[in-house]
């Protein structure tokens, strides 16, 4: 077989596999949205969940997911930023750097159930946090750190070395060059990484079953004291997230409309994750066009 024919067969095979994957993805998302969107309403989003009667909503679960996402980013972003800056700007190419990168890869490959059990044993039991938003946020930090660290490192590496040399030529220190020149230039890529990580964290369920808990106690949304047990801002209260709520409805839900609530909640979860991912793509494209036009 001549090389041209082999290339055509290989290209056609790869294209066919890509089409199959895309069709599966479109079919899965379409099925969830087709069954779930008709169940979404303002009442559904703003009403409390019901344990036994029909007509419940996802207000508390949706808020818990957003609150846990924000807290996770507040914990993981400073750590990932420091690690990304070190690996990109200061780390030498030696065995220590290789060990750090290997550990990051290992951390990114851990199953979510394993991380959840680790968080349960360490934070829930050993440290006495109990089932709480804080325990869930720390557990999700283990998911966030590898992806966010790599994204920050790659964003910093894409900044041309000429900008580093320009900062040095002006007499700036390495740290001042990084904070005043490199970070602002890499900011669009860092923001894109944060949005992608947010989508991953928002849809996580397995780790939160063992850390944040499977209950959503009624909280007072007018109580802004984070130390109050009834405050919606209290990080030590248990918090059933949207993904965990969907899992519970499909495994042990006893409400008459459990299937409708599960379908609507799944559609909301997919829509939010799509917004995160499409927003990251749009931001990346906009930034690329802006930088290209500037050049």
Automatic annotation (TrEMBL):
One of its GO terms (cellular component) is plasma membrane. The chain crosses the membrane at residues 12-34, 66-87, 99-123, 129-148, 178-202, 261-280. One of its GO terms (biological process) is phosphate ion transmembrane transport. It is a multi-pass membrane protein. GO terms for molecular function: phosphate transmembrane transporter activity. It is found in: Cell membrane. It comes from Paucilactobacillus vaccinostercus DSM 20634. This is Phosphate transport system permease protein PstA. Belongs to the binding-protein-dependent transport system permease family. CysTW subfamily. Keywords: Cell membrane, Membrane, Transmembrane, Transmembrane helix, Transport. Its main location: membrane. Pfam families: BPD_transp_1. Residues 62-280 form the ABC transmembrane type-1 domain.
């Amino acid at each position: 077989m001549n090389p041209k024919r082999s290339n055509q067969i290989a290209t056609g095979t790869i294209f066919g596999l890509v089409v199959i994957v895309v069709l599966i993805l479109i079919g899965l998302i379409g099925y969830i949205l087709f069954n779930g969107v008709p169940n979404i309403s303002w009442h559904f989003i703003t009403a409390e969940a019901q344990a036994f009667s029909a007509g419940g909503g996802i207000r508390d679960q949706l808020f818990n997911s957003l609150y846990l996402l924000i807290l996770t980013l507040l914990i993981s972003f400073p750590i990932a930023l420091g690690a990304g800056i070190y690996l990109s700007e200061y780390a030498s190419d030696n065995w220590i750097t290789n060990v750090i990168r290997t550990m990051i890869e290992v951390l990114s490959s851990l199953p979510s159930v394993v991380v959840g059990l680790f968080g349960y044993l360490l934070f829930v039991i050993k440290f006495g946090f109990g089932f709480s938003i804080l325990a869930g946020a720390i557990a999700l930090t283990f998911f966030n750190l590898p992806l966010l660290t790599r994204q920050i490192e790659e964003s910093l590496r894409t900044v041309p070395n000429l900008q580093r040399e320009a900062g040095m030529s002006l007499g700036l220190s390495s740290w001042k060059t990084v904070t005043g020149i490199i970070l602002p230039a890499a900011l669009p890529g860092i923001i894109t990484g944060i949005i992608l990580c947010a989508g991953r964290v928002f849809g996580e369920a397995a780790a939160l079953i063992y850390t944040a808990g499977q209950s959503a106690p009624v909280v007072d949304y007018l109580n802004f004291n984070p130390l109050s047990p009834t405050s919606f801002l209290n990080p030590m209260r248990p918090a059933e997230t949207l993904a965990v709520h969907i899992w519970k409805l499909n495994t042990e839900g006893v409400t008459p409309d459990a299937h409708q609530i599960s379908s609507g909640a799944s559609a909301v979860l997919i829509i939010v994750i799509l917004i995160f991912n499409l927003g990251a793509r749009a931001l990346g494209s906009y930034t690329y066009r802006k930088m290209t036009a500037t050049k």
